[in-house]
Amino acid sequence: MTTAAIYVRISSDDTGEGLGVARQEAECRATAEQLGWTVTEVYRDNDISAYSGKLRPGYERLLSDVEAGTVRGLIVWHADRLHRSPKELERFIDLAERTRLQVQTVQSGRVDLSSPDGRMRARLLGTVARYESEHKSARIRLKMAQNAKDGKPHGGHRPYGWEPGRMIIRESEAAVIREATSRILAGEPLRSIFRDLNARGLHNASGKPWTHPTFRNVLLHARHAGLREHNGQEVSVAAWPAIIPPETWRAVRRVLNDPDRVTTPGRGGRLHLLSGIAVCGVCGSPLRVGHSRSTEAYRCMASACVSRRRDRLEEYVEAVVIARLSRADAAALLAPEDDGGERERAAQAAERVRQRLDDAAASFASGVITARQLATITGQLRPELAALEAAAAPPPDRASVLGELVTAGDVAKAWEALSPDARRTVVRLLMEIKVSRGRRGPGFSTDGIEIVWR
């Protein structure tokens, strides 16, 4: 009696239930029974394409066992379950010849790799399978491009903020996206936001706690703005509604993609109140905390123009903030600023620039302009678009940042209760701080500290 192994594989398993490989295995076992073979091992690769070139753990383990001589017979549902690459097929043929492996398929019977005719048949089947995979891949790419152009969604797992059909907003999650967007535009770090959400039990679409990469990726999805992206480019207005306005999403994207954005605490995991917020009054560079004569100090990191004791400068700024929020007219700080329509005009101008970029891409696609001309046009328009998008960015939601402080009976106590991230967000929202050299002598001097209210 021949001892045999079964190999089963399916390229795509959207449900994650493994039903496709289970059906293959059942039919392979039936074939083994007909042949009088005893199945000793089943090798599985679920949701892995043979055409993609990705490592298939089950397949690699099978080859190792064939090489070791522990597998003498192999049953597969169809030869294309084993290979869709001529390179892989040749490797398998060489191994089968050396080990005299018997190969049987459910669909087409025996595959004799010991004879020239059998190997030719296997190669022909492999060539056909490769053609079918390439043809299918081309059809899928065309379909995905057309779906994107029409504003339709692709398939896949349920995205956060949306019901399984990907067309209807899930309001409970959409509220989280809106809140996070507002907090990011107010200057709060991503880390602080998702940690807060996790503490409140507001987890991702899989029900798991947020991590930095997954939370960032969710907020960068164009679908939340009612836009359709394809290959990283905006291609159309989506067929689904928007959770947040497009200009708000673009502002968030600009913040999260800013290479100069500081996203981690300083030395020892400490987050200093004014790092990166206060600037040097001499050269305009951001101030960071360093050591000056064994004392922590805010220093100009570009040219060492300024050095001020960290604790004294922070105490002064905190006192100014608390005093302003304790005033009778503090509620006025919650009112959104009136920009006289500047943001709307910038948004309209940005849309016109995007249309010019789309027209240039269409002209290149139709052969009207060359690749060099397209690059020139794009190079000129991209900086203009970035400036307009920055001007069109919505203002931070001041009420969400300052509301609890303004309404607190004891502002100083409410300030102390805030996290370091939240305090930095308040300072960034309320003021611009320039620090110049102070007068020499004992004690801390407020000379040279300029605070401009936003």
Describe the structure in brief:
This protein is of the alpha/beta class.
Which features does this protein show?
single chain, 14% strand, 4 domains, alpha/beta, Hect, E3 ligase catalytic domain fold
Description:
Pfam families: Recombinase, Resolvase, Zn_ribbon_recom. With 454 residues, this protein is of the alpha/beta class. It has four domains: 3-142, Resolvase, N-terminal catalytic domain (Rossmann fold), CATH 3.40.50.1390; 171-256, Alpha-Beta Complex (Hect, E3 ligase catalytic domain fold); 267-336 and 397-453, no CATH class; 342-392. 46% of the residues lie in helices and 14% in strands. The chain contains 14 helices and 13 strands. A five-stranded mixed beta sheet has the order 2-1-3-4-5, with helices on both faces. The protein starts with a strand and ends with a strand. Residues 13-18 have low confidence and may be disordered.
State the share of residues found in helices, binned by percent: 40-55%
Overall tally of structural domains: 4
Terminal CA distance: 85 Å
Question: How many individual helices?
Answer: 14
| Alpha-beta classification | alpha/beta
CATH topology of the largest domain: Rossmann fold
- The low-confidence parts are 13-18
CATH class of the largest domain: Alpha Beta
**Could you give a short account of the major beta sheet?**
5 strands, mixed
- The strand count comes to 13
